[in-house]
């Protein structure tokens, strides 16, 4: 293959660079697109170009770039999937998020990979919820559970464990309800010093206390968590919520 006298790159390397640049440009334009049609068209263009770029990495010996390229491919599939959800085209949305899950396995395998996987699974779980298919929703929630345990980001872990816990309640999966609360309480314990998480922790304690009282009839333990929630609500000046916790505690006396 002949080298360009100006760039020193082979024609295949130049083609690869153009595909990467055009693919990423298409993705950025897809994010800004104003219509469903344009969003899907541009995001699909990104996927098509970057998949061609992946094929070229084998030829030019640049396969270490593939995990980074696949990040854009997965994000483009998710963008199309979200567009289909907005348009109530759930079957095509499912197909896109399943594709995103498969391609996400080819990325770096780091914290961001886990966060993306949780996001894609949560979207598939949400679609099952919309269809009131609790068996499928439960299946996706179970898949999310071990991935959420790996997260270093406490705030995101709280959000995802709360989301899957709510699904387990609707699917009546008692073991996984308890497991989800266990993980939430662990995160709360190690995150108490973070000011920005105080509201989330207070809400989790309040929710868990209600579960202990209403479902498990463990009133003494419920009272303890209502008190902890009350203290946190007071610390962040949510007096009405603190008073609500006080009222719940009084009823348990």
UniProtKB/TrEMBL annotation:
It comes from the Archaea. SUPFAM superfamilies: TPR-like. This is Tetratricopeptide repeat protein. It comes from Candidatus Lokiarchaeum ossiferum. The lineage of its organism: Archaea, Promethearchaeati, Promethearchaeota, Promethearchaeia, Promethearchaeales.
């Amino acid at each position: 293959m002949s080298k360009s006298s100006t760039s020193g790159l082979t024609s295949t390397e130049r083609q690869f660079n153009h595909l990467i640049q055009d693919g990423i440009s298409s993705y950025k334009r897809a994010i800004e697109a104003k219509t469903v049609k344009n969003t899907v068209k541009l995001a699909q263009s990104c996927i098509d170009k970057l998949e061609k770029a992946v094929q070229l990495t084998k030829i030019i010996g640049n396969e270490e770039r593939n995990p980074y390229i696949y990040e854009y491919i997965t994000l483009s599939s998710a963008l199309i999937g979200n567009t289909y959800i907005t348009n109530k085209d759930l079957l095509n949305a499912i197909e896109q998020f399943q594709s995103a899950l498969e391609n996400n396995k080819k990325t770096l395998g780091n914290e961001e990979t886990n966060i993306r996987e949780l996001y894609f699974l949560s979207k598939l779980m949400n679609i099952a919820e919309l269809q009131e298919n609790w068996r499928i929703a439960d299946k996706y929630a179970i898949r999310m559970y071990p991935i959420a345990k790996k997260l270093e980001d406490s705030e995101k872990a709280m959000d995802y464990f709360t989301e899957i816990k709510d699904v387990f309640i609707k699917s009546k999966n008692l073991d996984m309800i308890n497991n989800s609360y266990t993980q939430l309480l662990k995160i709360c314990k190690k995150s108490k010093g973070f000011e920005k998480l105080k509201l989330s922790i207070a809400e989790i304690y309040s929710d868990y206390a209600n579960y202990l009282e209403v479902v498990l009839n463990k009133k003494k333990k419920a009272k303890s968590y209502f008190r902890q929630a009350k203290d946190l609500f007071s610390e962040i000046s949510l007096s009405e919520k603190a008073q609500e916790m006080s009222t719940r505690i009084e009823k348990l006396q």
